[in-house]
Specification:
By secondary structure, the chain is α+β, with helices and mostly antiparallel strands. It folds into 2 domains: 235 residues, FAD/NAD(P)-binding domain, CATH 3.50.50; 120 residues, D-Amino Acid Oxidase, subunit A, domain 2 (D-Amino Acid Oxidase, Chain A, domain 2), CATH 3.30.9. The strands form 4 sheets. The protein has an 8-stranded mixed β-sheet with strand order 6-5-14-15-16-13-17-20, sandwiched between helices. Strand 5 and strand 6 form a beta hairpin. The chain is globular. Bound molecules: 8-demethyl-8-dimethylamino-flavin-adenine-dinucleotide and P-hydroxybenzoic acid. P-hydroxybenzoic acid binds next to loops.
């Protein structure tokens, strides 16, 4: 098979890139290791910046998002019984949207056939070849048949564990920066109304907790857990009791309980792989960087990466202009590092770090006092939360 751009991975970055290229008449194929049902049912992000919703509008795949997404004009930082509301609309004139990554992924996959975007699901043994040369290729096995896809370029959109970044590491070109945090988030999704109309990020003596949502009838909560804890350590009642203790005193409606649709633990990590281009291979999204979820930036960074990459590939094909391809890494990294900083800042402000004592906690309280009383601080937080401009 021959194509112009071979895309590895059908998460948000691969799907958005594929659609942006197809909208410009560029031929591309997505190769995905998992089956469609698996990709469509992964529960992950929930908050979209306008950078991401703008891309969905540009693609004309926004009808369901516009109808069902919840516009959020603010969010809250909580410290014991104190709720500090960050009025993002008043401070920035903008908003964020609650619309699940699951829904966004489904919309993009559903629109693929009519846009001529080929997605090859259940591709086994996906491997990249010749990215240093003029004619790179992706090989894989589908339904027992081996397939070689020759392309002009390869986009590595295969997440943190995919093969694309490893090709660059093996070539000896890794420039990477990492910080692991000594805790994870235990998440629960349930069909119960959210406890509060806006998200609440809470710093409690027992650790961080987040009250989020997917819709007016579906809640998403997280609490900080140690790295040794397992989902089995948390029977649903124990988790609901803990969430009620944190959020009943500060939320409008109190925590409503219901059977878990999903529970899982995710570790927290900050990671940047700066070598986002190697020859004809370009990395985007989680393949190149991870943020702790505290700022809701992961999916949105994937979207901004592919906005830069799509523009660069379109300039290459439309006007034989490779300046944006050359600039891709620098443009993407400038935004990535700022989002890394914000996610790291909010993570440090809102979590209890094992081994840290009363002084560090007083520093968190002093910072929250300052945020509560300073419009300038609130504005800085709000403009990062809604997403810095492309
Ligand atoms: P993905 O979504 O991981 O997709 C990568 C795809 O590549 C496939 N793949 C392969 N395909 C072919 N061959 C191989 N060998 C392959 N290996 C892997 C995978 O199957 C998959 O389909 O990366 P992408 O597209 O870059 O998207 C990134 C986002 O998914 C991620 O950043 C967000 O989910 C992060 N995140 C959040 N981001 C936000 O913007 N807002 C949030 O509110 C938010 N909350 C979260 C989050 C992530 C979480 N977890 C579970 C890590 C909350 C959580 C709990
Ligand atoms: C979510 O709803 O899953 C969510 C929301 C905000 C975050 C992280 C996750 O910062």
């Amino acid at each position: 098979m021959k194509t112009q751009v071979a895309i590895v991975g059908s998460g948000p970055s691969g799907l958005l890139l594929g659609h942006l290229l197809r909208a410009a008449g560029i031929d591309c194929v997505i190769v995905e290791r998992q089956g469609r049902a698996h990709v469509e049912s992964r529960i992950r992000a929930g908050v979209l910046e306008t950078v991401t919703t703008d891309l969905m509008h540009r693609l004309g795949i926004s009808a369901r998002m516009d109808a069902e997404g919840l516009i959020e004009d603010g969010f809250n930082l909580a410290d014991g019984e104190r709720l500090i509301r960050i009025d993002i609309k008043a401070l920035t004139g903008r908003h964020v949207m609650v619309y699940g990554q699951t829904e966004l992924t489904r919309d993009l996959i559903a629109a693929a056939p009519e846009r001529g975007l080929k997605i090859l699901f259940e591709a086994k043994d996906v491997a990249l070849h010749g990215v240093d040369g003029d004619r790179p290729a992706v090989s894989c096995e589908i339904d027992g048949e081996s397939l070689d896809i020759e392309a002009d370029f390869i986009a590595g959109c295969d997440g943190f564990h995919g093969p694309s970044r490893k090709v660059i590491v093996a070539a000896g070109h890794a420039r990477e920066y990492e910080r692991e945090y000594p805790f994870g988030w235990l998440g629960i999704l349930a069909d119960v109304p959210p406890c509060h109309p806006e998200l609440i990020y809470s710093n409690d003596p027992c650790g961080f907790a987040l009250a989020s949502m997917r819709s007016a009838t579906r809640s998403r909560y997280y609490i900080q857990v140690s790295l040794t804890e397992k989902v089995e350590d948390w029977p649903e009642d124990r988790l609901w009791d803990e969430l009620a203790r944190r959020f009943d005193p500060i939320s409008q409606h109190g925590v409503a309980r219901g059977p878990a649709l999903e529970m899982s633990i995710a570790p927290l990590r900050s990671y940047v792989f700066e070598t986002m281009r190697h020859g004809r291979l370009f990395l985007a999204g989680d393949a190149a960087h991870i943020v702790p979820p505290t700022g809701a930036k992961g999916l949105n960074l994937a979207a901004s990466d592919v906005a830069y990459l799509a523009d660069a590939l379109i300039a290459h094909y439309r006007s034989a202009d490779d300046r944006l391809l050359t600039l891709y890494e620098a443009r993407a990294l400038a935004r990535i590092w700022k989002a890394e900083r914000f996610s790291w800042y909010l993570t440090k402000l809102m979590h209890r770090f094992p081994g840290e004592g009363a002084f560090e906690h007083r520093m968190q309280t002093a910072e929250l006092d300052y945020v509560a009383g300073s419009q300038a601080m609130q504005k800085a937080i709000a403009e990062n939360y809604v997403g810095l401009p492309l």
